Structures are given as structure tokens and as C-alpha cells.
Amino acid sequence: MPGWLRLCLCALILCASGGVSAAPGAVVQLQVDGVIGPASADYLVRGLAKAVDEGAQLVVIEIDTPGGLDTAMRAIIKAILASPIPVASYVAPGGARAASAGTYILYASHVAAMTPGTNLGAATPVAIGMPGAPSQPEGDDKAEKDKATQGDKGTGDAMTAKQVNDAAAYIRGLANMRGRNAEWAEQAVREAVSLSAEEALEQKVIDYLARDTADLLRQLDGKTLQAAGVERTLATAGAPLISHAPDWRTRLLAVITNPSVALILMMIGVYGLFFEFSNPGSGVGGVLGGISLVLALYALQLLPVNYAGVALILLGIAFITAEAFLPSFGVLGIGGVVAFVFGGLILIDTDVPGFGIPLALIITLALVSAALILAIVGMALRARRRQQVAGDSGLVGSLVAIAAVREDDPRAGWVALQGERWQVQGAAPLQPGQQVRVTAREGVHLQVSAVDEPPPRGGN
């Protein structure tokens, strides 16, 4: 086999495998930077599975997150709890945080570590459908605080209380499993408190304080941890550290699961299919619209979607489209814009930071849709006012020159009109080159009348 062909095959195999693989006994490093959503959950779950397949002895998850979706967080925690190799969650670099969902992941991990200058906490769930997180009650009376945080029906919402209680029980269970401070964990949920790295170590919320990943691995060397019921002794001093960056699938998923991008894809999909059905033949609108709509639907099924918002958006598009065909004098168009705006506002059913759709984008898309439909209406009105150039209406009234005259009948001849040869009949004799006007059509014959005098035959 030629050398160049072997190199190409090796490159293809390397790309298919997703890059460099960890050697047995290596430490695999994964990174969570930003809001935890479907893309980060997919990345971490697949990264943990890949580390197991490669025979790594430890996975270090470097965390810097303001929180994220509850479904994504629980998928990550399930993967950590089921992992047969230990997982160390490490809040880094300096200035990073493990807020909200990050705190739960930290508590679920076999090892919890932070670097100086970081913080964790504020784990109160931002509930789906709620206008905001439950506020901390004022005053110093502990009984009043407990009553408020437990969702007393006179001061709070029953659904809020259920979600807060569920989250508190969840993180307390994780704390008991890992032998960490369960009281502070519940306080982080009910009162949204936070801790610095030094305070977290002092209160036994985390296990280690490390300057960097290398320092953490030195501290973990020789430690025995239990993962999936099996005790494992780490030998991390000098172990190779392999970092698995997000691959193309994770990056693509991160883009399309952005609610703003998902809304734009849905608009492109709907209008692409609309134009394809209105003007079939080119196929561009159908292909682009179909792909965009499928991607949008895939993204929306991964996100906490309010289906009333989806219905309002589709209803708004239908109203705006109907404005182009029905004489509603703008009523349907204005109603469609209003329905679209309200649908976009309530489309994503969560207040988690990073998962909202900007109002400016919603209004822009609504106005673009309205402008597009108005442009279509304008073109249709201009086309209606334009003189018809096809059929009988395009023939009658046309000026044309006589091409030839029949010898047996000087009132009959032929003309070339609209790319065709027509027989013509006049009330008076016709001459070749004479300008005539078409007055009527009778089958395959045209009736004409002269508009000027016959040209002279020659001479003076």
C-alpha cells in the first residue's frame, strides 16, 4: 500500500475516533464552561462512557457554570453515580463558580474540589413556569423562614414548595451518599446561600482545595475511592492527563439547542416549505425548509418548551400568511404579529439564565415576517394591475406588420405574433409590411384593421 494512502487511512481513523485516546491508567479531563443544557449533558455522558472504554482510572470534570436545566443536570448526575470509575468535580480556574446545577454535580461526584477564588451554592431551583425563584423571607425569626421556605399556602405557591422540597431531598441524598455536609446543602437549596472555596473546605462541603489540576492529582494519589460498589486505589501522581474537548456533535448540539437559534430555524423551515408549496419546481425552499424544520423540532424536544407558545407562533405565521390572500385590511396581519410575539415570549418554559429568547429577536422576526408578506401582497397587486400579455387578452389590441398576403384573397395574410405564425383577415385589402391592429380572435384566425396607408409599390 502506498505511503500516502496509509497516512490518509490513519487520519480518517483518528478523526472517526474523535482524537487522541487515553492510555490505560490515564486521567481524563472534561470541561463544563457555561450554562448546563442538552449539549453539555450529552458531552459529559458520552465523555464518561468513553473514559470507561479507554480504561482511565479517574475522570476530572472542570466546572465553571451559573447553573442550567434540571433535566440536563439529572442526566449528568445519573451518569456519575453509575460510573465504574471515580469522578472528581473541580471548580476551576480562579473566579469560576459552581452555582445551582453545578452544586448538585459537585455533591454527586466521588471527589469534590475547588481552586482558591471560586465559589459554589445558590442551588434554589428556578422552576419551570415560575416567574422567578422563591425569595428568601425577611426577618430573623427562624420559624417564619422555615414556614415560608416550605411553601406555606398563605405566602407561597404550592408548586414552588414541591419543587424546592424535591430539590432539597435530592441534594441531601447526594450529600449523605458522599459523606458531605447535608445541612448546608439543604440550606443552599432553601435559602440560596453560597460559599467560597475556603469556607466550603472548612464546612466539609468539598474534599480538597487545589491550586490547579496537577495539584489535585498529587493530593489524590494513593487515595481509595468506591465507584459502583468497587473500591479503587488511585495512582495519579505522574499519570498522563488527557483532555477530551467537545467534538463536532456537541458543538452542533450547543448551537441548535440555543432557543434563539431554534426559533430562527423554525421560521426558516415554515417559510421555506410555504414558498415551495406556493411555487413548486425549484426545490430550494423545500430542501432548506425541511432540514431547518427538522433541526428546530429536534432542538425543541430537548428544551423545556411551552406548547402554548408553539401554538401561538404557528397561529401567528398562519395569520400573517393569510393576510396575503384574504382582504382583511391588515386585521389578520396585525393579529399574526401579536400572536407571534406572545408565542415567542412564552416559548421556553424556564427562567434559567441563558435559555431565554431576547425580546428584540422576537420582535425583529415578527416584523421581518410581516414585511415579507407585505412584499408578497405588493407584488401580487402590481401583477394584477399589469396588462395581461398571454392568451386572447395579450393578442387583442396588438400592433403587428403583415408578413405576407394571400394571392387568391388580398384581404387575408399572415403575421408573426408572440412567437407564432397567425392567419389574419381584414375588412380591406392588405399589403406586405402594412401595420395592422388585432381586433378579435376567431379560432386560429385573427381579425385585423389597418392603422396606416399601404406602403407605395415603387416608382415616383
Automatic annotation (TrEMBL):
The chain crosses the membrane at residues 252-274, 305-322, 329-348, 354-377. InterPro entries: ClpP/crotonase-like_dom_sf, Membrane_assoc_protease, NA-bd_OB-fold, NfeD-like_C, NfeD1b_N, NfeD_membrane. Keywords: Membrane, Signal, Transmembrane, Transmembrane helix. Residues 261-377 form the NfeD integral membrane domain. It is found in: Membrane. It comes from the Bacteria. It is a multi-pass membrane protein. Its main location: membrane. Residues 405-448 form the NfeD-like C-terminal domain. This is Nodulation protein NfeD. It comes from Ectopseudomonas hydrolytica.
